[in-house]
Amino acid sequence: MIVARQLSKTFRDRKRGAIEAVAGVSFCVQPGQIYGLLGANGAGKTTTLRLLATLLQPTGGTAEVAGFDVTREPAEVRARVGFLAASTALYGRLTARETLAYFGRLNGMSDADIAARTQALAHDLDMHAFLDRRCDKFSTGMKQKTSIARTLIHDPPVMIFDEPTLGLDVMAARTIVQFVRECRARGKTVIYSTHIMSEVEKLCDVIGIIHGGRLLAEGTLEALRASYREHDLEEIFVQAVGLPPAGVAGNP
Amino acid sequence: MNGRRILTIYAKELRDMLRDRRTLVSMIVIPTLLMPLIVGVVVFISVKVIRQARAEAPVVMVIGGDDSPGLRAALGAHGRLRVMPAAEDWRTRVAAKTVRAAVEIPSGFDGALARGEPATVKIHHYEGELRSGFAVAELQRFLGDYRERVVSARLAERGLPATFVKPFSVQTANVAPPEKVGGNVVGGIIPYMFLLLCFTGAMYPAMDLTAGEKERGTMETILCSPVSRLDLVLGKFLMVLTASLGTVVCSLLSMVGTVTLGGPLVLSMAGAARAGASAAALPTLDPLGLAAVLVLVLPMAVFFSALLLSIALFAKSFKEAQSYLSPLVIVIILPAVAGVLPGVELNAKLALVPILNVSLASKELVSGVWHWPHLALIFGSTSLYAAGALALAVRMFNREDVLFRT
């Protein structure tokens, strides 16, 4: 479970002064649920997820992940989180098996547990053919599978995905989406950020629309459609963030 | 702090680095080949040049002296010179190096000698040219002997003993042990090489493990694992330190190998006749002093590793890190070179100046001088700087604005 309470992050920039990247965001994600954080570039999605993964320290508010506080017990939180982002790459000079072993050890697993878990993940993700090859020689698909296995090696109850399909082709993106669904099916708490409307529509149980660091709307797709009296998610998004509806600007 | 996690990170970084050809080159290949290469090339060229120059009897030209057959005949009979007939363009020939030197005999030289009047013989040479120098030396030796013979003849004529013109002689004797002689010449250079290699050895991994990881996107991957930032920085630091010390050890082994294997080779190359002189030119270093230098280099390596790690972490990309670290090589070279300069001696104040202190102490140590208070001061202050640099590295790894700098 993830509970964010008035989570805030202000960056200090010498030129631009204080920048409120995340301002008082509160939400709750239940186990077996996919929470979709929908927002444009620079809306505060990545910062919010980095705060949850304890990569960054909040400047205000707090969050609880799998029962641990992100500010007081960051190591405990990280031990229960699988974090996959477009920006989390693999070590090119390690093989897939060595990568899994490395992250397994950092998670305090025994060698026997790591071996068993690697075997299971390689079977689930069909990785046997390239398990002992170096990651820098991998195709995008192989890298994706290895990254997924890396996030799952310690079987975390909470999964955080930060625009995981960014820059991927249709097939690779489908693998990811399928994997996110499986996480939900196994009862994991999942939070997923994206700016792609169709992914949110297909995947997410609850949608939070974030803009300018603030959570402007939240609810199931049906609930959002009902409250905005609009079927198209893109229109709902535009109304929620307060941009003029498409077409209006050109027709006085 | 979690020892097991630090070791896990260290082991992974070590494996990662050993699979990287660039690290292997900078850590093992270059330091191993550098020493024998430098020593080999220098010894080979100098031995060859000197041997060739010595083997060849210098060509000299005698100008004037047509009325002094005595000196001319003696010059012509001297086996170590090849006398060429005089020519108008002798100056050009000396400059063109076809003639090594020209000896100018004033007119009426033999007559002046016979009358006991003063006379001056002039040697024209090409300053700075090695073989011209040999010709001058040979001419001076010959003319000196010739003068001695004249003096002896005059003394004999007057029935005076040889001590009449040479009432006493002067001798110089060396009290410095042989390692002190070798130490001053080579002693400054070898520890200086250690310092430089210790720095350059740490440079590449420090960049690869920080800015390189940011650039490749693996920094975020490792930061979202349960490992603490302290464990992460210590594991990485150990790896950089290993590379730094590995570089020094490789160069040291290579140096020992060069001296033990290459020494006899140099002697045989120099030839039996000059064996004594070549043996004196070879560095004779105090091995215990060399070991002490390594002990001083240890905190220096810690200092370099931690400092490079801190600075490189600030960079967003490998290239940016390179632009920060490359100028630092000069900062390292300057104090190290100052230590090699003659006249700069270690004192309590200089013992606190990083790099320079180790450089100066190394020069003394390899030449067999042990000044314990200074050594303690250097080890203590360098350790302190090292601890400071390590604390800085830990601080940098805990700064979000450094780790996620955009």
The ordered string of helix (H) and strand (E) elements of chain B is HHEHEHEHEHHHHHHHHHHHH
Please give the CATH architecture of the largest domain in chain A.
3-Layer(aba) Sandwich
The domain tally of chain A reads 2
Strands in their spatial order, largest beta sheet of chain A? 6-7-8-3-9-10
Trace the largest sheet of chain B across and list its strands: 2-1-3-4
Classified by CATH, the class of the largest domain in chain A is Alpha Beta
Largest interface: A-B, 32 and 25 residues
Describe the structure.
The complex is a heterodimer of chains A (252) and B (406). Chain A has 252 residues and is an alpha/beta fold. Chain A folds into 2 domains: 1-80 and 160-246, 3-Layer(aba) Sandwich (Rossmann fold), CATH 3.40.50; 89-155, no CATH class. Chain A is built from 9 helices and 10 strands. Chain A has helices spanning 45-52, 74-79, 96-106, 111-125, 140-152, 170-185, 197-203, 221-228, 233-241, and strands at 2-13, 17-29, 34-38, 60-65, 68-69, 81-85, 158-162, 189-194, 206-211, 214-219. A 6-stranded mixed beta sheet of chain A has the order 6-7-8-3-9-10, sandwiched between helices. In chain A, a hairpin with a 2-residue loop joins strand 9 and strand 10 (214-219). In chain A, helix 5 (140-152) runs parallel beside helix 6 (170-185) and helix 8 crosses helix 9 (233-241). Chain A is globular. The N and C termini of chain A lie far apart (48 Å). The model of chain A is unreliable at 247-252 (pLDDT under 50). The model of chain B is unreliable at 272-281 (pLDDT under 50). Chain B has 17 helices and 4 strands. Chain B has helices at residues 3-18, 21-55, 69-77, 90-95, 109-115, 130-158, 178-187, 189-208, 211-216, 218-223, 229-270, 275-281, 287-314, 318-340, 356-366, 372-397, 400-403; strands at 59-64, 82-84, 101-105, 122-125. In chain B, 37% of the residues are buried. Chain B has 2 domains: 3-40 and 177-403, no CATH class; 52-164, abc type-2 transporter like domain (abc type-2 transporter like fold). With 406 residues, chain B is mostly helical. Helix content of chain B is 70%, strand content 4%. In chain B, helix 2 runs antiparallel to helix 8, helix 8 packs across helix 15 (356-366) and helix 11 (229-270) crosses helix 13. The A-B interface holds A 11-12, 50, 53-57, 75-76, 78-79, 81, 83, 85, 87-94, 98, 102-103, 105-108, 134, 150 and B 4-5, 8-9, 12, 15-16, 19-20, 216-218, 220-228, 400-401, 403-404.
